[in-house]
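User: Could you walk me through two proteins back to back? I'd like the raw sequence and the structure tokens for each, with a short line separating them so I can tell where one ends and the next begins.

Assistant: Of course. Protein one, sequence then structure:
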Amino acid sequence: MDENNKKEEIITEDLDKEADKKIQGYGAKYMTCISMLIFAAIFAVGVFAERPEYSESEKRPLEKKPEIWVTGTLTGKYFEKLDRWFSDTFPHRERLLSLESGMEAFYGSGSEAFYGNKTDAHEDTIPEVSESLAPVIELETSEASTEAETEASDLYSNLIETNADGTLKVDTEPKEEVEITGEQAGNIYVTNNKGYEIFYYNQGGSVKYASVINTVKALFPDRNVYDILVPNSFGVELDTSLQEELGSGNMPDAFNYIFSLMDPSVHRISLFDTMVEHKDEYIYFNTDHHWTGLGAYYAYRAFCEEKGITAHELSDFRYVDYTGFYGTFYFATNRSEELKDNPDHVEAWIPRGTNDAVITDESGAEFNSNIINDVTEANAGRKYNCFINGDHPFTRISNPAITDGSSCVVVKESYGNAFVPYLVDHYENVYVVDYRSYKDNLAQFIKDRNVQDIIFINNVQAITEKVSGEILSIFS
């Protein structure tokens, strides 16, 4: 009897195992079919759905589909480009990236994070205050430079590229057609739900930048030349010991050194102490690398003090505020949940005399715009375009309330956008030039319009040899 029971149990177990195997087999086949259908659907979407050409949130054109070429197929470069195009323009990429970021949040996140490639960072040693000025750059061919220029070129020959006669080399070829596509942040440090772009000092860029400013002053000895250096939030808001730990240079030391290279007749305005004084206020965005309208206002006050004019109070202007802004840090960190929890808003103050501007775009066409634009309905990544409608080669602002012939030209990158509106009530004409896309000869423009004030405004990350070359090219 016991043996029969055991046999029945063995038979039952065998039947159960066989049933389990069948169930598992059906489950595996079912899951395989589901997976194949999902992949087929994704493939179909990737192949047949309309692909985006521009990312509104990242403010850049997406990769273009490469044309096939023989060498590229043999070396594999064609397939690399094809792969980049396929992934960069995948349909509904914005939603997929947001979904990915949300899923990553389920794994938990720490209180700080680093985004970027530390191996790409290069930090030079910041010298003491220079006893010699950065050399003036020869924009036209000359038989020989002066003795002073030669000595200066020898002093910095290991830092910046020179011609055979000792003058600094500069590309004076006309600019080709370029499209302003927004700006990308470099190495980003996120802590306490706020992003910071790490500053790495560059010696060659510092010297060449000072040379460019000296060159413009030499071109216009009878005009007022202002150079405004803007620190970023990394240098202002984070503890210096943390900055050193992350490999950054000392920002105020860098500013002091750069200014020591400039002609003493240049009006040099370092905003470091000004921004530190107000660092507990909303002067930098949480999710973007720019300063806010309030931060730019404090820069305007410093400019007015240097110029010897009275700055207007914020209460003198009409205030507007636009919510729902996510900037470059947010998108560069693949929509960090830390930053998503700390969105920005764009505060702006409308000039009293006028809110009208005439903008020249990349094609050379003019259109009317506002100085402070309503960005209520703008994409979350483009609300900084509230200020002078974003980055354009040339902008002209004429204030009908002033008729004294006063004028200034502002040579800027995007930090200057938030600064420009405050100048409107002090000049009859304000001309704004973005050196990254301006194609005309700015030196001739200044002479033709008899512009009195030349104002350079650059954030610390723009002090590079590349940027200096771009600035110099528009003066020749």
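----
Protein two, same layout:
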Amino acid sequence: MRPTKQEFQRIRLRTIHIKTLLFLGFLVIMGFIGLLWFARPKTSELEKRDLTKFPSFSLKGVWDGSFFSGVETWYADTYPLREGLIDANTKMEQLYGFKTEQIINNGEKADAIPTGTVDLEALAGRGTTEPASEPATDSPAPPATGESGGTTVSTEPAEPVTTEYNGHGAADENHDLEKAGSIYIADGAGYGLYYFSESNSARYCLLVNKLAKNLAGKAQVYSILCPISAGIMLSQEDQEKIGISDEYAAAEWFYRNMDASVKTTNVVPTLKAHNDEYIFFRTDHHWTALGAYYAYREWCKVKGVTPHELSFFEKTYEFDGFLGTFYSNSNKDPSLAANPDTVKAYVPNGTNKMNMFVANNDGTFTEYGWRIVNDVSNYNKTQLYAAFAGGDQAYNYVHNEAVTDGSSVLIVKDSYGNAFIPYLIDHYEYIYWIDFRNYKKWCGWAGYPDPSISNLVERKNIQDVILCQNISIAGSSSALDVMESIYK
């Protein structure tokens, strides 16, 4: 027997009431979860960044409303279930249709790459007068740890301190000056996209030329502009379709406009010749240890030394399941998740001991003994690139007692340099490397008012300086702003 109209209305109202109660119950539960202060995350593994902190209370902030907007941002950014909800939303979006190709964060536009040499000052938008250098100090006050202000490398034994760092090596993807940038995803792999900037590239060349001039007769400057993956791994047709710049032509432009005293290494042709090999990660913006190895071999030609074969390295590590910056910045793209990477690392033979200075939250630094190639098998799968060179610490040094000729090198790097550094260890007795993005802060803490590369070279009697940055960061205005006080 069919229900009457009145019975149907009662059933309908009862259903509405049940749905309303369920919805209100859901809101109450979600609101209660939001009140769990202790459960709020401080960092995001998905986005690889620190989350918004609770705003400081002030009467001015209350009056102008900034305090309340800050609380609103903090509440949303640190909600306990935030990353799970983002992940669920991404999976729901995928139900609307699987995308075999997509470009993420594509807001950049490339300049045409000029032929020949150019007026760098005009392109950089400057006059001919260079700003005065910061004054150097003859006797800086050293910190109480192993780093000393000695004038020659032979006086600094660089023995690793006994304290072990209990955390992970700093991952570069947390750094504001190095992002994955625009990403092209196709067939289960991500590719970093490069867009040439004429004015910013001119600024970089001016900085390198200034450094080379200041180091004339003191140290040899080498430049390695590390390519990013799209320019190496994609066909010319695909590169033109996406509208990215030719990385070989860009590198040649940089090198034509650098001072003749700078020894340059264009690694693009060699990497392209090996692009059927595993030289770039699929889920991350870095090159692999194999990609860095081919770049190292090209540098050896320029340096005039014999490169070590991969069989030379007696110990290696392999870490499976790596899901890097492309994976994180694409909201865990399922095609990348289905193709995780393997991080392989070659341990130097002479020594695997290094010293690094790790930044503390209060602006100070602590020196730790660490490993040049570290076992990261217990790390989060998004952090496995931290296996190389301690991550992106401000200042690091090694004394390789297997080499006794007093040779020394400084690598000025971003995170691409991390995978490159282990190959240099067996060529030098003293190896230093700085991450230009953090080095000035370390100098301020260590008592060195002049954070320039020249000052460090003079203090440590360094013979070779290798500039090792990826080609995108060499054309980044925010990165160049930081380089201004370092590259001189």
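The first strand starts at residue 43 and ends at 44.

Let me know if you want the two compared in more detail.
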